[in-house]
Amino acid sequence: MHLFVNSLAASAGGGLTYIRNVLPQLAKRSDLRVTVALGHGLQDELSDHENISFVELQAPLARRFWFEQSQLPVLIRKSGADVLLSTGNFALRNSPVPQLLLSRNSVYTSQDFYRDLRSRHKYRTWLDTRMRAILAKQSIRWADLTIAPSESFAAELRRWSGRNVIAIHHGFDREAFTRDFNPLPSEVDGKLVAPPNTLKLLFVSHYNYYRNFETLIRALPILRNRLAGRPVRLWLTCRLQFGANPGAYDPRSTAALVKSLDVSDMVVELDAVPYNLLHHLYSRADLYVSPAYTETFAHPLVEAMATGLPVLASDLPVHREICGDAAVYFPTFSPEELSETIVKLAASSEVRQRIVDFGRERSKTFSWAKHVDAILKLSQGQMNSKRKSG
Questions:
Q1: Helix 349-363 to helix 299-306 angle, to the nearest 10 degrees?
Q2: What is the DSSP secondary structure assignment for residue 273, as one 8-state letter?
Q3: Closest CA to 373 of 32, 8, 4
Q4: pLDDT (tens digit, 9 = 90+) per residue, 356-373?
Q5: Structural contact between residues 259 and 163, judged by C-beta atoms closer than 8 angstroms
Q6: Number of other residues whose CB lies within 10 A of the CB of residue 39
Q7: How far is the C-alpha of 170 from the C-alpha of 191, rounded, in Å?
Q8: Total domain count, the chain
Q9: pTM
Q10: Domain that includes residue 246, residue range
Q11: What is the dihedral of CA 16, 19, 21, 23, to 10 degrees?
Q12: Do 35 and 83 share a structural domain?
């Protein structure tokens, strides 16, 4: 089988994490050929494999959808591929081969996201997201099969689109995630230095609105009062500075909130940490916190569980599906409840250890090998159906 993978949308965050982990699994299949379309300059970040070839394309971000619709069908035909795997939420309207679509952007269906944009007066972004949502919904109809990374999100897509969507969990490979023993960059390592007995909170995310940074920031002064005498640090893998992060999200209002609440000494902006070194960061924190108000899978939760870090997560169906009993949950928009949950968890080593034990076992249920096996089985089924109908 020859699989064509459209990963032009993979530039940062979950998209890049996905392609980094899936390609080595595809490379293990001796009966498989793979062609990968990706953005210019990204091939250097990916390993070379004998059965995988890359096509680097300079796709303008503003016109990427139309670029894909016009250029990719030609490339797919030339490659001789049997099946197309579209990994970036949008499908080809006229794919020359059976097409599997990975849909994994929940902002298109999130009413909280649209309300958030209105509250920030980001009307242009609101309109752009609405337009993209129309294309994303139409893409589910264009694809032969749509796949979501969790059952919670698959159910949401079914309600939204009226079409069948199946769930295949994304995977995790602890050995690959922790194999790099190189130290953290010195500029990052220096920022991790803290007074003795400091409670170190970690949140791994590029800056965006739907990860709900504000609730986490608002919990900090409450924590300062509740944990009188114990220092608190919140480590962020981004910078709250305009233009310093991937994407078009504007962090200046969050930076202003940090200043107005007088918690600048509690917030540590590490900037982006290389993916292969993230495990060092998890191992040096005390608690992992995810306040996101919409999510489709949440790779950092699995990474935190696998590295033995207790998890606190906003009470979303997706978070409960991924973590189960291996996390403590709090109401999504309540800094008071979040701070109370942190205080209770920080005070109980027994509860923390229980969560850590559950988390390590829970993380073992996620496997990139299983994920790729399921994708290839569906691809083979689509290919066979096409041959029979042809």
A1: 110
A2: P
A3: 32
A4: 999 999 999 999 999 999
A5: no
A6: 18
A7: 32
A8: 2
A9: 0.92
A10: 176-363
A11: -150
A12: yes
